Amino acid sequence: MIQAEGIEKKYGTFKAVDDVSMSIGRGEIVGLLGPNGAGKTTIMKILTGYHLPTKGTAVINSHDVYREPLKVKESIGYLPEMAPLYTDLTVLEYLSFICDVRKIGKDKRKESIDRVISECGLEQVINRPIDKISKGYKQRTGLAQAIIHSPEILVLDEPTSGLDPNQIIEIRKLIQKIGKDKTIILSTHILQEVEAVCNRVLILNQGKIAARGTTEEIRREMKGDFRFSLELKSDAPDKTRGSLEKLDAVNKIMLFEPSQKGNIDIRLSVKDEISSGEALFDWAVKNNCKILSMIPEKVSLEDIFIKLTTQGEAK
To answer: What pTM did the predictor assign?
Structure first.
């Protein structure tokens, strides 16, 4: 449904997008995650035909953005970060106007409007002026205009930006519902959004893809980020720490807190989960330490995001 190969976008000498490739299939919800300025919106504009890439190719629903820009626009529904609303119109008037823009005939207009009103939960505000409805309903109206022509692909740029927590939950549920039979790509800098809504994620940094896959796949690919929380019993805490720091399996000790009972709470980063766990047990026996508990920790998406966007190399 969406295929991009080596796309690049320059503004003068500034390279906003650098050699980005992606493939997104039918029924997937894929998130573009990255800090401000990472290139998310520029990629969205290229995929929607709003901007042409400086280099590379992008094909949307079998239509090339260079050769068939109108076919591309017909194939997608687009919700930019600022929803394109005419606030002096009522919701119904606005959706009727979008039907004109999308060349939806009068024979199908009522059916199309009724469908998006139901899908987006706009029944209570359909006859109200857009400038008199809440921001949550404005986002719903923006989504309604994006799907009114039944596109196979949705492109959503920061769809929950500026909403309150309840509105965010509502819009996420709506995206998941719509995404059951459409291909959706959305951009966000909100980590929880990706985990709540997306099947896969592309993490962007400085215009490049720094990581891709499910959050679990990315975790497995991140070397040196397996972690354990330990509780040890040791009679010589200082000696224990020094010995533990020298262990090859340990990358970093992040917490080391002895208690008055002789126990030590430890949190550390290791090279991998299985062999490092075995090495820790062997080390404890050799150093006369008793492991009271050892709990593996999952690296959070926040940890991955911080590492990739501050010190990770894009790939």
So the answer is: 0.74
